[in-house]
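Hi U.,

Before I forget, here's the chain from the pilot set. I'm dumping it here mostly so it's searchable later in email.
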Amino acid sequence: MRMVDLIEKKKQGGRLNKQEISYWISGVCDKSIPDYQTSALLMAIIFKGMTEEETFDLTDAMLHSGELVDLSDIPGVKVDKHSTGGVGDKVTLVLGPMLAASGLKLAKMSGRGLGHTGGTLDKLESIPGLSTRLSIDDFKKQVRKYGIAVIGQTETLDPADRALYALRDVTGTVDSQALIASSIMSKKLAAGTDCILLDVKFGDGAFMKDIPSAKELATLMVKIGKYFGKNVRAEISSMEEPLGCAVGNILEVKEAIAALHGEGPADLMNICYSSGTTLLLQSGLAKDEKSAQKTLHSVVSSGAAFTKFCEMVGAQGGDVSYLEDPEKFPKAIYQKDIVSTQAGYISNIEAYGIGIDAMKLGAGREKEDDIIDYASGIVLKKKVGDKVAKGEPLATLYTDHPHFERIAKDIYSRFHIGEEPVEVLPVIRDHVE
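Structure:
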């Protein structure tokens, strides 16, 4: 078998069989196939696509390229929730403890932020002392004892995906439904949970720009889950504006703490209650939506969810006193209100632009090795649908960089104000089962 033949076959629109895909992925992992040939095949896939069967075979090859996590010896239902990424998405920090306090076991391997999207690991590591680098044994012990652990992907889990994604990122071959679906699902399946809920986002701040493409991706991933005998569902949610109000690591942790006390922004609370309901039904721990909602509201109002968050943070070496007194967190040197020059109603907030602005303030990475300033970021004072008066703050920026005036102007340009009230649409628009 020769790699050039696979490239030619796909270039002509042919279908790669299981053996050919396995040969390719094995060569990616042992480096017997050079990057330039893999890049050529990836580009051919971008233009010619992959069938569902090819996507299943690619997921299978990637899934088995490394270690598989076995969680079967942990009692209870093990669940995972994955988001395709967005601006201000701190759902895991809120939903995870809610699920654990409700009786589920959240065993999650998460990622870091790059570009305009924030990473869950970066948010957690803004808590002093917290480590997201646990061995699989310690990961399982923590899930068994506390019902929740969130760590980074291990070096031995799905190495094919790491190799392929590094190439896709620099060769303009990210935007393929088959490649995105196999990348996400191979990692999720390798992590060994019983139930997986996918939050597939669409809109200005998401990879999928509209509902049809987001639903197409979600449907493909659910089909992959079914093919491998896993209980997988998906929700389609909006990323037309940032989720919640805070964008930036410490700022988002503070907002998550508020949410765990029932005081988070409405859109953040809504998606947490909705996703939590889906997972409780999916896992069989709730018999209907009403009982699921009652359980979730109870663990928040009683403080049980916040206690779970503290247990997780403490188990991973974090200083829990920062959660109990968020004012202890470091504060940015510079803070500036972005003030409206007109009255009206917020008709749109550009999520992608806000994400880029937060990154430029120090809250994210443009390159993988960039150092994050945990205290920097943006807090929205107005959301879509809100009424605003002239001279009223739209947002506040936080940074340690003294030269932020250009970014402040950019942030102002992300807010669009109209004369008439606008309809506020729900965050979650559809479900795929």
